[in-house]
Design brief:
The protein has 2 helices and no strands. The chain has 56 residues and is mainly α. Helix 1 runs antiparallel to helix 2. It is elongated. The mean pLDDT is 78.
Amino acid sequence: MTRNGLLGALILCAAATLAVWLLVMPDEPARALQDGAGAAALATLLVGVAIRRGAE
């Protein structure tokens, strides 16, 4: 993954976590952070797999 791709993934993670926290769980910021971090990690893994398969 390139540096720009990693930076984009981190920004998307932060934006998605903030949106979940503010819109869905405003009273539970710790749980929103856990959910956002888990979803971002899974999405990053899936994108990495897709990029590797596409390169083969």
